[in-house]
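Pasting two entries for a bug report.
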Amino acid sequence: QVRLVESGGKLVQAGDSLRLSCTTSDLQDYAMGWFRQAPGKEREFVAAISRSARDAFYAESVKGRFTITRDNPKNTAYLQMNHLKPEDTAVYYCAATVGSYWHIREYEYWGQGTQVTVSS
């Protein structure tokens, strides 16, 4: 059983920065992704990173503001969020896959989510 635990979500102001963390055992075995779900909306892709951290890609809405990274020895993946906007308000989920990082519809394992609220 793969268990993912997110942390770092909180209430911030527009323009602030925030870093989310996601821990799991044997992180090196998985490509990792971050997704989010705003109230009344479907869950959407945010960012993904390959096992080696050599490759990553982002949703257009966060490109240039968010950065996904990972530290395999620490079994932790991160989402650095800069220049936050009210529309970034959502529950953020960490996800893992044994498949390819770009197959964003095929992530098998999910965390419980962490709330990020950006006030204007």
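Entry 2 (this is the one that rendered wrong in the viewer):
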Amino acid sequence: QVQLVESGGGLVQAGGSLRLSCAASGLTFANYAMAWFRQAPGKEREFVAAISWIRITTYNPDSVKGRFTISRDNAKNTVYLQMNTLRPEDTAVYYCAADRTWLGSKYAYWGQGTQVTVSS
């Protein structure tokens, strides 16, 4: 059974930083592309960043703009999202996702999400 468990969310002031983690189990982690999405209240879920099994990365330029960094540790079956210079508009539930396809239209596995709240 595949499980993705996010952690690291919380309340932070604007301009601050957070690092999200997503621990994966039940899959061969090194063979999967991993991604972060987010969903703000009343808005659709949006793509934030993704990293391939060989650590190619891509970001949503509209939402990230060089402030976020995705990385992975295959030895720990974990993907990270370092978020710097946070803004109130970054407030959302952040989800990690996994799939065998790089930048496919759908991800096979999803975590339950972790709340990030940025106060002004």
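Dev reply: Rendering is fixed now. As a check, the viewer should reflect this: DSSP finds one helix and eleven strands in the chain.
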